[in-house]
């Protein structure tokens, strides 16, 4: 019952915070130069993390920040939750996100995204999508920005078999940039399509960059191997916590495959 109450309070505070910040800071945001305007969404991200810790009891740790290079690179986080959409923003310099075109149609939010010159993608056609991603990414890289792309394209529950798309391999081959994988277990604490937020500590790990120059198949194999191995380790760590979060069926199955026995209820 306490988790439900805290989740309801956090969700209310989360959306109220968005509304208040948009009302108060929108004039400032749109009058500032683009680079300086990052202070608004990054502050929004920090406030979300603070609210989650204080209300839902969910903290986070990020290991491996020293692996983030300077200048342009491709950032490739695991996508499990809405949490990973905003949580890394304060750690990135000037990222450009690859996102669904439909998000640009949301009133006000779409204007925020447009100011930051994100890359909208029409996912109805793979050829059109790859072309728009490539053109947008080249412009961003020329400006020294970081390309933020979720290799699996959509949120996947913790422990689910990986389903990496070709977009990341296309960008890797075309741009000639290092790729920085990010593993985490946020989906255990902020599950997709659910309102409950579970207390504990979200663990994130920034992995060493995969340098450019590999062929596509070798690159994708390495990306999957290092990301999924780290996610497995973080899943196990969460399962062994004193008060672990509820495990979805995909996580339970993966833990069994890894030889980890969960305590009986």
From TrEMBL:
**Which keywords are on file for this protein?**
Acyltransferase, Membrane, Transferase, Transmembrane, Transmembrane helix
Q: Which residues form the Phospholipid/glycerol acyltransferase domain?
A: 73-187
> InterPro entries, alphabetically?
Plipid/glycerol_acylTrfase (IPR002123)
Q: Does the keyword Membrane apply?
A: yes
SMART domains attached to this UniProt entry: PlsC
The answer to whether the entry has keyword Transmembrane is: yes
Residues crossing the lipid bilayer are 12-32
* One GO BP annotation of this record: phosphatidic acid biosynthetic process
**Cross-referenced Pfam families, in alphabetical order?**
Acyltransferase
What pathway, per the record? Lipid metabolism
Q: Residue span of the signal peptide, if any? A: none
One of the entry's Gene Ontology molecular-function terms is: 1-acylglycerol-3-phosphate O-acyltransferase activity
Protein's recorded name? 1-acyl-sn-glycerol-3-phosphate acyltransferase
- According to its UniProt entry, this protein's organism is Phyllobacterium leguminum
Which lineage do the record's taxonomy fields give for this organism? Answer: Bacteria, Pseudomonadati, Pseudomonadota, Alphaproteobacteria, Hyphomicrobiales
């Amino acid at each position: 019952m306490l988790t439900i109450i805290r989740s309801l309070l956090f969700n209310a505070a989360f959306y109220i915070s968005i509304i208040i910040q948009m009302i108060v800071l929108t004039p400032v945001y749109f009058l500032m130069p683009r680079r300086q305007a990052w202070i608004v969404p990054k502050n929004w991200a920090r406030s979300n993390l603070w609210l989650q810790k204080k209300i839902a009891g969910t903290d986070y740790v990020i290991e491996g920040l020293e692996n983030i290079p300077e200048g342009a690179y491709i950032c490739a986080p695991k996508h499990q939750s809405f949490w990973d959409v905003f949580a890394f923003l304060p750690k990135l310099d000037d990222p450009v996100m690859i996102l669904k075109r439909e998000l640009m149609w949301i009133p006000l939010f779409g204007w925020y995204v447009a100011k930051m010159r994100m890359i909208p993608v029409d996912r109805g056609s793979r050829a059109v999508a790859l072309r728009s991603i490539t053109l947008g990414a080249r412009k961003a890289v020329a400006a020294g920005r970081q390309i933020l792309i979720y290799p699996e394209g959509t949120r996947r529950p913790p422990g689910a078999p990986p389903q990496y798309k070709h977009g990341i391999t296309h960008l890797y081959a075309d741009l000639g940039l290092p790729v920085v994988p990010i593993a985490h277990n946020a989906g255990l604490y902020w599950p997709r399509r659910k309102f409950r937020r579970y207390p504990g500590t979200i663990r994130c790990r920034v992995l060493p960059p995969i340098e450019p120059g590999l062929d596509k198949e070798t690159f994708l194999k390495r990306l999957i191997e290092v990301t999924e191995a780290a996610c497995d380790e973080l899943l196990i760590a969460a399962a062994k916590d004193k008060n672990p979060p509820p495990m979805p069926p995909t996580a339970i199955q993966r833990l069994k495959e890894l030889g980890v026995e969960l305590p009986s209820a």
